[in-house]
Design brief:
Topoisomerase I, Chain A, domain 4, 2 domains, Gyrase A, domain 2, single chain, elongated, alpha+beta
């Protein structure tokens, strides 16, 4: 029954790395003072009777370090897209030129940078909690396997050590990602 315990280790690894992937996705939506196409990903537009992500109604690009442009494909959606960008919590002020929306990315104040760094730390803590929950599930699974007599005490201890090593490595990866994001945010 070692295969079942080994398989669960692969599953735990997949789930832990899923938490890291979600964290990196959340980090990509945080503003750093530089323009990034990921900045507009959370924005949705009222289009054709439903809400759609902005990148499905137009092409987002970065022509300059502090400028985003959104080339809207359908003329009738330009005002809805502009309104969605303006009403987002990103603090952006779009300008419409025909079917092109220019979105200047303003400098971040030191106070706003600190707020964003706190948000990044919250995201990282959520990812750490998710990883610890996966670790707990894995440890419970190992206890159950030992209790049912499917694995021995030595194998349980060995697998538990592997789960702990995986947890430590994943949390280190989260901490490194946070450190990188904080330095990116605080950079002027």
């Amino acid at each position: 029954m070692t295969d079942q315990a080994t398989f669960s280790l692969k599953d735990l690894k997949r789930r832990m790395h899923g938490a890291v992937s979600v964290l990196k996705e959340e980090f990509s939506g945080l503003r750093t003072g530089r323009a990034s196409v990921h900045l507009l990903e959370p924005i949705t537009v009222e289009a054709y009777g439903s809400t759609m992500p902005l990148n499905q109604v137009g092409n987002v690009s970065v022509p300059e370090p502090r400028m985003l442009t959104v080339q809207i494909w359908d003329k009738s959606l330009v005002s809805a897209a502009e309104k969605a960008i303006r009403n987002s919590s990103l603090g952006l002020n779009p300008m419409v030129e025909g079917q092109l929306i220019r979105v200047p990315v303003p400098e971040l104040s030191q106070e706003r940078r600190k707020e964003l760094a706190k948000v990044a730390a919250q995201y990282a803590e959520q990812a750490r909690v998710a990883v610890r929950n996966v670790r707990r599930d894995g440890m419970e699974q190992l206890k159950r396997l030992e209790k049912d007599g499917e694995i021995g005490q030595d194998e349980h201890r060995g697998q538990a050590d592997e789960v702990q090593k995986l947890t430590d490595a994943t949390i280190k990866e989260i901490d490194e990602a946070l450190e990188h994001k904080e330095s990116e945010i605080m950079q002027i």
